[in-house]
Amino acid sequence: MIIDGKALSLSLKEDMKARMAELENKYGRRPCLSVIIVGDNPASRSYVRGKIKAAEFVGMESRLIELPQDVSEGALLSKISELNADEKVDGILVQLPLPEHIDEDKVIDAIAVAKDVDGFHPSNVAALWLGRKCTVPCTPKGIIKMIESTGVEIAGKKAVVVGRSNIVGKPVAKLLLDRNATVTIAHSRTKDLAAVCREADILVAAVGRPKMITADMVKPGAVVIDVGINRVADGTLVGDVDFGPASELAGYISPVPGGVGPMTITMLMENTIECFLSKSPVGNV
Ligand code: GUN
């Protein structure tokens, strides 16, 4: 069974779109997402276009701030301060990676926690690990919704997350732990990675290496989530999982493209609405 991230994402966006008029009636304006992009990395540009398009689809306000590759760190930080202070802006996203001369940590730290729609600010990360109210990072949040969409219970299952990034591996492991999975975080130095993966009832591949997870690493019937977006020599996008052979063994598997990617963007829309609502004096609807 294919986990159709594109279809799931579309249905969630339709629900959000249907809520927009109600939000505008109640609060006098729509949620607003600001996206900052520095330079012209083609992959980043394409991701950002997808984010703005999704905002338009659901009917929220969006602002795209395009800064040149050689923008100074100071100029970027003052743009963020300006957006932090703007009452009409609910979410601020700075597309990563940033050019070498800019300190990424400084930039993330500068975003107001209440507007950190990525959930990358250290206060949000700490809150996630402490089990407090927080903005959950988009990709991990989308992955959990995809697993839940299968109807397979997470509690009590063995989950293996391959990859330990701050954006995906670490937070998705925490979210799986919160749902009572027994979680292993594997990585490039894991001994006998294939054997570790074969134990997994839920396998999340977030390594960024094309087709690294081969069929012999998949437990029959497992739920397999492929986070990889790797552009290979012929220009096509492939995941971290060798989809064809792995799909013959997996119970449920997400494709690339059309899996985690669209869900990440949709969760960004959800996070922007949550930030909008949590700062509203009227409270949630
Ligand atoms: N670059 C790759 N993924 C992401 C993401 O989720 N958020 C931001 N801001 N940049 C990214």
Secondary-structure map:
Blueprint: H1 5-27, E1 32-38, H2 42-58, E2 61-67, H3 73-85, E3 91-94, H4 104-110, H5 122-130, H6 138-149, E4 158-162, H7 169-178, E5 182-186, H8 193-198, E6 202-205, E7 223-226, E8 230-231, E9 237-238, H9 243-249, E10 252-253, H10 260-279
Parallel strand pairs: 1-2, 1-3, 4-5, 4-6, 6-7, 7-10
Antiparallel strand pairs: 8-9
Helix pairs in contact: 1-10, 2-10, 6-7, 6-10
Bound molecules: guanine.
Guanine is lined by residues 93-96, 118, 138-139, 167.
Give your account of this protein's structure.
This protein is of the alpha/beta class and 285 residues long. The chain is built from 10 helices and 10 strands. The protein has helices at residues 5-27, 42-58, 73-85, 104-110, 122-130, 138-149, 169-178, 193-198, 243-249, 260-279, and strands spanning 32-38, 61-67, 91-94, 158-162, 182-186, 202-205, 223-226, 230-231, 237-238, 252-253. A 5-stranded parallel sheet has the order 5-4-6-7-10, sandwiched between helices. A 3-stranded parallel sheet has the order 2-1-3, with helices on both faces. A two-stranded antiparallel ribbon has the order 8-9. Helix 1 packs parallel to helix 10 (260-279). The longest helix has 23 residues, at 5-27. The mean pLDDT is 96. It binds guanine. Guanine is lined by residues 93-96, 118, 138-139, 167.
